[in-house]
Amino acid sequence: MTFGFTEIAELLADFGAQLDLRFAAGLGRLDVVKKGFVNRDASLKPDAGRLADPYENRFRCERTRANILCHALYFASLHARLETAEFLLELGADVNQEVPGVNQLGGTVLHALTAGVPFGASADSRLSDERRIPMIELVLRHGASVTMRDSRFHSTPLGSAEHHGATHIFEALAPHAGVQDAVQFGLLDRLRDLLDGDPSLANARDELGQTPLHCLNGEAPGVFEIIALLLANGADPDARDNAGDMPYDKLQSAGKSDLAERLR
């Protein structure tokens, strides 16, 4: 299940391999999820999380309700089980919980979906992306954060999609980008929409204390227009991030002195 070998997992289950709620969800066996592991009052049965984590010794997590539901949503999402994922979300699975016990990437279900890594025997990245987009749309409707950063790489889901070259996923997420991502990836129209709705976003800070000006990317399209738009909306070119750096300093360090001078 972890590596996307859906057909093999289904075959093993057909031959009697044990399931718990998490792996039943990954197989899309909603009847088993409902009848086998969820009580009528929506509490979980004691064996709902009985099986081992994929990396038991390295990333084992406590079998709390939240963790079991998060695992179940993770597997349902990676295997495109829309109906099962919808049920888990209605049951209370936290779409913005960092997925425990699976890997060391430190991200949410949306981070996992946007990683763009092809799974399974075919390893077809295009088909993998196409399979995931309906699930991405589902978790977005249920409040999945596009601005939350993972705990290891400090990346948003959009940044993860861009890093992995998941073009279709990136395009699906771009209309939902936060202000820092809109600046970093040159999403000028999205940036305009955000600032039209709330000009104070020109000075919004992320977890590292970075404002949108700190996120300027000299290789992004429309970067000069982005600078002008941010400054016109009151962006502070002298703001310092948590490391004490100003946007000017970051651009100079990146060898973009022409852009840095625009902030003087």
Layout of helices and strands, plus pairs?
Layout: H1 6-14, H2 21-26, H3 30-37, H4 56-59, H5 65-78, H6 82-91, H7 109-114, H8 125-141, H9 157-163, H10 167-173, H11 179-184, H12 188-197, H13 223-232, H14 247-253, H15 257-260
Helix pairs in contact: 5-6, 8-10, 9-10, 12-13
What does this structure look like?
The protein has 264 residues and is mostly helical. The chain folds into two domains: 1-176, Ankyrin repeat-containing domain (Serine Threonine Protein Phosphatase 5, Tetratricopeptide repeat), CATH 1.25.40.20; 178-264, Alpha Horseshoe (Serine Threonine Protein Phosphatase 5, Tetratricopeptide repeat), CATH 1.25.40. It has 15 helices and no strands. The chain has helices at 6-14, 21-26, 30-37, 56-59, 65-78, 82-91, 109-114, 125-141, 157-163, 167-173, 179-184, 188-197, 223-232, 247-253, 257-260. Helix 5 (65-78) runs antiparallel to helix 6 and helix 8 (125-141) runs parallel beside helix 10. The N and C termini lie far apart (53 Å). The mean pLDDT is 90.
CATH architecture of the largest domain: Alpha Horseshoe
First-last Cα distance: 53 Å
N-to-C SSE string, H for helix and E for strand: HHHHHHHHHHHHHHH
What is the fold-level CATH name, i.e. the topology of the largest domain?
Answer: Serine Threonine Protein Phosphatase 5, Tetratricopeptide repeat
Taking Cα atoms only, what radius of gyration do you get, to the nearest Å? Answer: 21 Å
Which bin fits the share of residues in helices?
Answer: 40-55%
What does the overall shape look like? Answer: elongated
Q: Would you report the number of β strands?
A: 0
Number of domains: 2
Instruction: Name the CATH superfamily assignment of the largest domain.
Output: Ankyrin repeat-containing domain
Main sheet attributes: strand count, strand direction, barrel closure: none
Structural class: mainly alpha
Total DSSP helices: 15
